[in-house]
Amino acid sequence: xxxxxxxxxxxxxxxxxxxxxxxxxxxxxxxxxxxxxxxxxxxxxxxxxxxxxxxxxxxxxxxxxxxxxxxxxxxxxxxxxxxxxxxxxxxxxxxxxxxxxxxxxxxxxxxxxxxxxxxxxxxxxxxxxxxxxxxxxxxxxxxxxxxxxxxxxxxxxxxxxxxxxxxxxxxxxxxxxxxxxxxxxxxxxxxxxxxxxxxxxxxxxxxxxxxxxxxxxxxxxxxxxxxxxxxxxxxxxxxxxxxxxxxxxxxxxxxxxxxxxxxxxxxxxxxxxxxxxxxxxxxxxxxxxxxxxxxxxxxxxxxxxxxxxxxxxxxxxxxxxxxxxxxxxxxxxxxxxxxxxxxxxxxxxxxxxxxxxxxxxxxxx
Amino acid sequence: xxxxxxxxxxxxxxxxxxxxxxxxxxxxxxxxxxxxxxxxxxxxxxxxxxxxxxxxxxxxxxxxxxxxxxxxxxxxxxxxxxxxxxxxxxxxxxxxxxxxxxxxxxxxxxxxxxxxxxxxxxxxxxxxxxxxxxxxxxxxxxxxxxxxxxxxxxxxxxxxxxxxxxxxxxxxxxxxxxxxxxxxxxxxxxxxxxxxxxxxxxxxxxxxxxxxxxxxxxxxxxxxxxxxxxxxxxxxxxxxxxxxxxxxxxxxxxxxxxxxxxxxxxxxxxxxxxxxxxxxxxxxxxxxxxxxxxxxxxxxxxxxxxxxxxxxxxxxxxxxxxxxxxxxxxxxxxxxxxxxxxxxxxxxxxxxxxxxxxxxxxxxxxxxxxxxxxxxxxxxxxxxxxxxxxxxxxxxxxxxxxxxxxxxxxxxxxxxxxxxxxxxxxxxxxxxxxxxxxxxxxxxxxxxxxxxxxxxxxxxxxxxxxxxxxxxxxxxxxxxxxxxxxxxxxxxxxxxxxxxxxxxxxxxxxxxxxxxxxxxxxxxxxxxxxxxxxxxxxxxxxxxxxxxxxxxxxxxxxxxxxxxxxxxxxxxxxxxxxxxxxxxxxxxxxxxxxxxxxxxxxxxxxxxxxxxxxxxxxxxxxxxxxxxxxxxxxxx
Lengths: 365, 636
Hints:
Strand order of the largest sheet of chain A: 1-2-3
Shape of chain B: elongated
Number of strands of chain B: 23
Structural class of chain B: alpha+beta
Order of helices and strands of chain A: HHHHEEEHHHHHHHHHHH
Largest sheet of chain B: 7 strands, mixed
Oligomer: heterodimer
Helix content of chain B: 25-40%
Largest interface: A-B, 46 and 40 residues
Strand content of chain B: 15-25%
Distance between the termini of chain B: 142 Å
Structural class of chain A: mainly alpha
Distance between the termini of chain A: 29 Å
Number of strands of chain A: 3
Strand content of chain A: under 5%
Number of helices of chain B: 23
Helix content of chain A: over 70%
Radius of gyration of chain A: 21 Å
Number of helices of chain A: 15
Shape of chain A: globular
Radius of gyration of chain B: 36 Å
């Protein structure tokens, strides 16, 4: 009886339209992963376990009232920044960049924490300065934003740095960042391109150059783009059919379970599948934005809006990169790519959305 | 701050936030539309291109070379075929340490540095899932040793492959030719002819002889195995399989026994013989002596053998029948006589008086007869039987070079015969135009005079002489010489006989021809220049002897064969057809430095005719005599 009541209480804090869309996405993801991993059941099982863990995290966050999340903002952000400094000093070098930190028995990637800590921190700041928002507050927000982004960019992990700054920027945007400042930022960004270019690593420059013409380096940096574009293009309108993607199954496509899983999807399900996936993503984003629009407090609104747009950004950047319109940066396709951490972060975001959605009365009272 | 103000503030703030939500939604939709545009471009508009790229990524075609057609003589004797031999093959993709494996194999079977070098070469040109031969022609013993050790040699296998073999060895090698490894020049030709696709998987191609000229028929059609490969180039599975179609078999007009008899008959002489069936143009024998062993070339000739063949003063690689150009000498006289009759310059009974030389009016230069004392009164019949030079000096001068050229052209002199073999030379039948082009000088009357006895600029190949002789035997009809009699389709077994092809009809009235043939018959009778070689023949032979000058003899100098270096002695020529009343064979023989045609060349032709017409094998041939023949048979 007590368990039943407890379950009902938990279930009350879930958003069912969102949950339904997420289940649809997960089902699709299981199909694609089964194909991408070469019909390997153990890999499929691991993917399923990742989903269960991520779902559990989501349910837990959904049942956490927003004011607790508010209280977590500063500690999480502080710990995140400290860990990032730790990474810079003592981190493990993997594939030429310093991203991982040994903590006891396990390794963690603090930049992942920042994906949530960043919007949380900024939303906290604006929430407590709600009544007196001045230009100065946006300036402080920008400083809070730049510190972790700079640390992540230094690792170097340009992809994650961009995603973190995007999630922070969305908070600033929803908090009412004046249009003239945004216009100014665009101008400054444009003007600083050549300077930034100078600071990029050679491999990062190559990725950008490769995007302009993948054929200049068909076996090196261009290989990924060429092979994934071939996979998507050869899928045609209706795809080659599930498990029938030759690019994937014959190993032409690199990283086909992780960052490039979308190429597998595009090859096997074609344009029709891609549009279906976009509709699914769009429906989730629409639900997120609706929740944000109806959120009762500024913190809830900023968090919901930022988390939703971050989700959009992951999806867009990944698909843009795999289909050859954005440079190759290490961004997984949300819910579809193999990998536990990324999925937990995404589902944590949905947990926040559900928490915001289902704790209205609590906040209002 | 009072409460209403706060609410107002809240409302304005919420309105601003919702406005930004709408803007964000618009932003999302626009960027998703960009993605959709990209997908439509890649998946619909450019689909074909990417589909092809994905297919070529995935599918490799492994060619299955066809079996080359075999070559048979007219009686079914095998001249070229394929035999299966064991080869030691390696699959590089299955071997971790190639060098170590080869070292290990070298303990079991003989592997020369050349084998290793060759293997490295072919490996560079191949895909790594193909098996490649390291060594060919393993003995049974070697096969057994490799088999016993196979369990510890992954990626090593013994395979049976087909090799070309010429069981007759040196016999008819110039006619059959040989195949050799495809080289850069062959490759370029195959690519320019768009035949290259059919040669994927084929290592060899016909290089000379009919192996070359019938390459398209002999090669067959390459089959293919469509193999799905992964990104590492490893074969995953076979998708489809097309069987190769074997090359067609060739049946030649050649009689290999006749060929062997002719080759033996040359003994230590260098020279050439071409025997034709005058009714069909079929090539019955085609000798260029000495021969070479075509088997040496099949798997790449080694430098020792190559140097021996290439630097030999006997020039065994020269196809004399096809590419040896020699002055016709007196063998041109029957054709000259016909020209004289045709243009009405001479009748059969017209006579001249031969003092032993001819001079052009107003010139003191003497064109000498081979017989210094002269032949006395000579008619057309005797001019051929005794081979009177003076008669033809005079006749040539009366005909003039233009008519000579025009008439002799009808027998194929100065033109390629069109034989079904590549590389033929056209020889030279001089004319004013030819000389103008050749030396930019006008034609001189003296040149006409010496052209009348087949000297000067005149050059013909033994093949051309045989074709012209066959035309005489055939009443003036020239047939294209044809080596291949029939092509046997490898799929249907059908025999496609190649029809005789008439290339010219010479203007000859039967009475004129009869005059000439009668004279040519008497050439082989007592008193004629070929009487010794023809003695005792139970059939009638029509013939003409000839001598082609190798070094010019100065005025007032006497030709003395024994005083000349062997290499400077005259070439001996002989043309004949038999039986003269119903010709079945026409022959041209050339013996380099053989002196006089009746002595060295005629016996060779006789041996060939005896076998062909009577089935009679010649007595064991001895090396041709080095001594000069007696004066009466030295006549020419």
